[in-house]
């Protein structure tokens, strides 16, 4: 009985088909290698889509991009003038150097007026840099009156935030009264009173009896002492906050 008679294919008929299949696979593999070699690495969506050498190239591309975004650190101790900063090639680093030099010179010479130089040195972003200068000068010298020179905000620094930083750092609640905004002033004094667990600080809210009562209640709640609630001004025993004094007593006796 021959193979043909039982419907099977002879060995010499299988080999040509197998060779053709192998040839096609090798061709596809070769095309894939060529396309991979010439493919531009796009690291914007991460590197998970790559493998082998292309994955390493993708990672390297991300590292290179990140490195370019981080300016090399200049030695501020060797900067003696704005001209020294001007010799720095990288624009962001150069501007940071100039701004830092002006701020340090203002602090060292105890002359906040030097912050005004930001206007003449920088054509752009001078307002932001000047705000930073006044903020840093005020904090470094612990002079909250300088905060009043911050007449506009850069979205982060304000007169109130400047004063608040100094008050928190020094623990001096009296400084909070330099803040004009009622709510900002309350936040400043309430934070110090509760942080220091000192109800006397609440009385810096001289002209704001309602928030003074809230502050007293917050301190009473922290120290768990309902007797402190008796310090709340009698005129607040009415409708405000559904009787502040009772809320104070309730809050300070919880979990006792």
Low-confidence runs? 1-14, 33-38, 65-74
Query: What is the overall shape?
Result: flat
Helix segment count? Answer: 10
Content of β-strand? under 5%
Judged by helices, strands and strand pairing, the structural class is mainly alpha
Please count the beta strands (DSSP E, at least 2 residues each): 0
Please characterize this protein's 3D structure.
This protein is flat. The chain has helices at 11-38, 52-69, 82-86, 91-108, 117-121, 126-141, 159-170, 182-196, 209-223, 244-252. Residues 1-14, 33-38 and 65-74 have low confidence and may be disordered. The protein is built from ten helices and no strands. α7 (159-170) packs parallel to α8 and α8 (182-196) runs parallel beside α9 (209-223). The protein is an all-alpha fold and 256 residues long.
Outline the secondary-structure elements.
Elements: H1 11-38, H2 52-69, H3 82-86, H4 91-108, H5 117-121, H6 126-141, H7 159-170, H8 182-196, H9 209-223, H10 244-252
Helix pairs in contact: 4-6, 7-8, 8-9, 9-10
Quick gist of this model?
By secondary structure, the protein is mainly α.
Which terms summarize this structure?
disordered N terminus, mainly alpha, 256 residues, 55% helix, 10 helices
């Amino acid at each position: 009985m021959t193979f043909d008679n039982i419907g099977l294919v002879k060995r010499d008929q299988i080999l040509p088909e197998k060779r053709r299949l192998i040839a096609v696979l090798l061709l596809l593999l070769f095309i894939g290698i060529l396309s991979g070699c010439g493919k531009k690495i796009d690291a914007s969506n991460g590197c998970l889509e790559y493998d082998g050498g292309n994955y390493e190239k993708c990672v390297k591309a991300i590292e290179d991009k990140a490195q370019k975004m981080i300016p090399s650190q200049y030695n501020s101790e060797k900067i003696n003038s704005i001209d020294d900063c001007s010799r720095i090639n990288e624009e962001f680093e150069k501007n940071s150097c100039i701004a830092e030099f002006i701020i340090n010179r203002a602090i060292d010479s105890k002359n906040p007026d030097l912050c005004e130089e930001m206007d003449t040195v920088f054509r752009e972003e001078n307002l932001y840099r000047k705000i930073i200068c006044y903020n840093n000068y005020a904090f470094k010298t612990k002079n909250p009156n300088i905060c009043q020179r911050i007449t506009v905000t850069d979205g982060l620094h304000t007169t109130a935030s400047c004063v608040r930083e100094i008050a928190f750092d020094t623990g001096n609640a009296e400084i909070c009264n330099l803040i004009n905004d009622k709510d900002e002033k309350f936040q400043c004094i309430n934070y110090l009173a509760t942080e220091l667990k000192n109800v006397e600080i609440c009385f810096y809210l001289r002209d704001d009896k309602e928030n003074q009562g809230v502050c007293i209640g917050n301190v009473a709640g922290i120290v768990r002492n309902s007797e402190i609630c008796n310090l709340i001004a009698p005129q607040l025993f009415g409708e405000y906050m559904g009787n502040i004094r009772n809320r104070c007593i309730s809050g300070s006796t919880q979990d006792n």
